[in-house]
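A reminder before we start the practical. When you read a complex entry, don't treat the lines as separate problems. The point of joint prediction is that each chain is placed relative to the others, so the output describes one connected object in space. Small molecules and nucleic acid strands, if listed, are placed in the same frame. In the example below there are two entries. Take a minute to note the order of the lines before looking further.
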Amino acid sequence: MNIPGLLPEGLRDSLPPQAQALASLVRTLTDVCGAHGYERVAPPLIEYESSLASGSSRERLRFTDPVSQQTLALRSDITGQVGRIAVTRLAQQARPLRLMYAGQVLRVRGDQLSPERERTQAGAELIGSDGPAAAAELLQLAIAALATAGVTGLSVDLTMPTLVADLAAAGWPLGRASLAQVQALLDGKDVGALKSLGADAFVPLIAAAGPAPAAIIALRQLDLPDAILARLDAIAALAAGLDGVAVTLDPTERHGFEYQTWLGFSLFGAGLAAELGRGGAYLVPRPDGTQEPAIGFSLYVDGLVDLGLGVELQRRILLPLGTPAAEAAALRGEGWITVAALDAETGAAALHCSHIWQSGQAVPA
Amino acid sequence: MNIPGLLPEGLRDSLPPQAQALASLVRTLTDVCGAHGYERVAPPLIEYESSLASGSSRERLRFTDPVSQQTLALRSDITGQVGRIAVTRLAQQARPLRLMYAGQVLRVRGDQLSPERERTQAGAELIGSDGPAAAAELLQLAIAALATAGVTGLSVDLTMPTLVADLAAAGWPLGRASLAQVQALLDGKDVGALKSLGADAFVPLIAAAGPAPAAIIALRQLDLPDAILARLDAIAALAAGLDGVAVTLDPTERHGFEYQTWLGFSLFGAGLAAELGRGGAYLVPRPDGTQEPAIGFSLYVDGLVDLGLGVELQRRILLPLGTPAAEAAALRGEGWITVAALDAETGAAALHCSHIWQSGQAVPA
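Here is the predicted structure of the whole assembly.
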């Protein structure tokens, strides 16, 4: 027996005005993506767990489907579903294929930054290219969407998720360490351990992090393969193209970028410690075993609500009993929210109305 | 092992342009409700199963919460959640309390009219009154929302879900039948069985169904208690207030109106056999055991998409490589959807663009 109104841990009712703010922000973010040619898809909330490619399987809510007797899961991320659509139902469409989405995601439990188990995710994915032009488009689109939603003090953290693996593959000596060990030691910025294991070559990467222009200069000092130098050029152009946005580069950061390839990014705004969104380049697995390059981003809309964004100014007017329907419609046409009285007693204040409609005039209540 | 891209029975990917049509229709429907003073709430997709008041428990997808070890369920209806919010978190707000919502609902399996297990529901609820004025407001609002969304040929089927029980309570003789038997026989329009069981009094109700004015005249011929006559007056006024909408009354129809009280209604439009929405008066259970009167409606947005509504006219223009950002922004400001070329090869047609931006002009592609 549950207490009426009590919700399970990590789940909540969104009330006015936050629920409207969330809807309004989703509208703004998807409108911006739509205006840039991204077309909306809406995958289902639940799928066979085995076909949900993105998000950690440990964080998914699972159950047995009474119909198919198979394990279904509530999605904890939408990116993988969009990729699945791109390489199956939309496999024949010309590339680049630009898709966008907004919807809810669920997870078994919240984390330190956010206790919520149900969140709203919006995003855009470009499938068929992960080159510099696509990266610039997506990063600028993410920033335009957040700026249009009202976010100020935008900053971007760039990372190169496959850099360490690529350098090792190009011959940088790992010493007595494994690749995974070197990556973990770089994550922990553990210079001593890297040196004692003979992976000294990777140590300078730790210092080459910070504001993008300086970090790029520091990286260029190192003996990098041409392919990596080309990526650095792309990242330098990317950073230079983001007017008024603070850009940092942490080349070895991989946390949360396990699926990304040459580029990852996190988006932050003034007033919120948690990231507002993230994205990067990745590969979509095709049914035939090959992979298709892609790049995209996800935005976490609840964080924008927490910032107080998306709240619409409301002009509410109380319509006394018997107000003609045409007058009410005309007021709504002028942008008023009309609240019809059901009796002669209830006042404007109780119904959150600033005005009353009297003798054909909007009179302050 | 599932075939990539295969979804469980009853679940589907919504693709362009249908996914955008659905989003656009939700926007239209909730905008209309919002303009009438209904404030948005967004309850969670999953709750303790024991607190989900509306919708049949047999049709809910259930699972054990790994966190609380309790049974959670995906909602199959949102009305009950809105009622829960009204009598708990918003219990102190003045009445009438006007709330609206839009979101997804899920069920174990589809039905004959619709195989879908995931659908989008939008609706409005007025809590604190279920009188004639509230009923008129909600029914007109539902019709205005559907008409604004583009539905034509609107019709409304009215019903009086508690009529038979109320007449029995007022002394109409059930003969040797139980109330449930009489209700079932009325549903089956089984005149013979009603007579043979001695429930003759209820037989004339069967004929008193059809276009509202005639049905109301037929009902007035019967020996009805004053309370029922007052409801008939309200229903007559309701029907008269719906200009250009065909209104029928089937006073004993109860199927799907198990939770409704004196009034239920179903909404239909041209081109679709399935109902577009339904609603009625009901009682919200308060935590203290009392009940609060309410009236509301739910709209099934997927049906509107099936009717081809909500599709937005798109003017897409291809921007060649190197188009200045300011020109692109200006085009979007004029209502164009801009699609940036990532290379010099991909043509306008492949990217579904009707125009190309050339020398400062939109040129047909």
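Discuss with your neighbour: Chain B touches chain A through 90 residues (CB under 8 Å). What might explain this?
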